[in-house]
Amino acid sequence: MGYVILDLEFNNMMDIEKYFNRFDSNNIKVCKECPNEIIEIGAVKLDKYLKELDSLRIYVKPCIYDVYNPKIKEITGISEKELAHGITFKEALNILKDFVGDNTLCSWAKDDITEIVRNAKYHRCDNIDWIKGYIDIQEYCTKVMGEKKAMSLKRAIEKLNIRMDEGNLHDALNDAEYTKEVFRRIYNYRALKNYIVEDILDMPAIVVKEDDNIDIDTNSIEIKCPKCNSDVVVEYPLKFFNWRFIALSHCDKCKNKILHEVIIKKTLKGKMVYKVNKTIINEIEYMNYADKIKQIG
Ligand SMILES: [Zn+2]
């Protein structure tokens, strides 16, 4: 058994306002059920020794949006003609399913697997039992390379000194090939096996953003000192900031200042999952965060 590394490109209506005057505004409605329409599938198949066995590139003919976002066209380089000659999503999914077979599916970050599930659901072909196991190579790579923030593929490529032609990024098959190069360099089965997800629907895959109108019970989140585990004195309660909630506190016992971060994710089944990070910070960092919180109001 080996691995199939997947990469997708989508069309969506993100930032389309910038081109608004070129389009009839009535056409620009975001599809809530499936905001990111898959337009290209790229995949690379590896055996268990990471030798490349096969590759796949499919263009999917769009049917959700009539408008092809010029920004996406610019980033991906996919032409209208290629899309017009594409196959249906259903056909594409069947080809991908056969291509994956019994291999473990992998991708850089969980967006692509999330979109496979979401697009499949939209097209009423939501049996995804054929995905037997899944690895988020970004998560694994970020951990083994000791980075704090989720790494971009580009950063991983650069850090690992992989030869790259920047113009080639954001092409589904090329990105899958680059991900393969990264994967080969950091591969260690004993470490990797802890990252294999059996049930992708239970995986916290979707980062919840502020505009999703989340209603979290901030009291249910335990706020304790990471050093001595005593209850802390909260000076600034949880507020949404960028992509997570933050709060500031101090510990009377060990006199530390603490930054609390709560990241909210949703599983593909829709269940909310909280992840709480606690970091001891110095006075200056504390003041900086306090200023930011004050600015949110
Ligand atoms: Zn303490």
Quick recap of the structure?
The protein has 297 residues and is an alpha+beta fold. It has helices at 70-76, 80-84, 89-100, 111-122, 137-144, 153-159, 172-186, 189-192, 283-296; strands at residues 3-11, 37-46, 52-59, 104-107, 134-136, 204-207, 233-241, 244-250, 257-267, 272-281.
Order of helices and strands: EEEHHHEHEHHHHEEEEEH
The CATH homologous superfamily of the largest domain is named Ribonuclease H-like superfamily/Ribonuclease H
The percent range for strand residues is 25-35%
Q: Catalogue the unreliable spans.
A: none
Q: Give the names of the bound compounds.
A: zinc ion
Strand order across the largest sheet: 3-2-1-4-5
Largest sheet: 5 strands, mixed
Instruction: Say what the CATH topology of the largest domain is.
Output: Nucleotidyltransferase, domain 5
Shape: globular
Individual helix count:
9
Number of domains: 2
Please, what is the average pLDDT? Answer: 89
CATH architecture of the largest domain: 2-Layer Sandwich
Q: What percentage of residues falls in helices of 4 or more residues?
A: 25-40%
- Determine the structural class based on helices, strands and strand pairing: alpha+beta
Radius of gyration: 22 Å
* Text of the CATH class of the largest domain: Alpha Beta
Distance between termini? 54 Å
Number of beta strands:
10
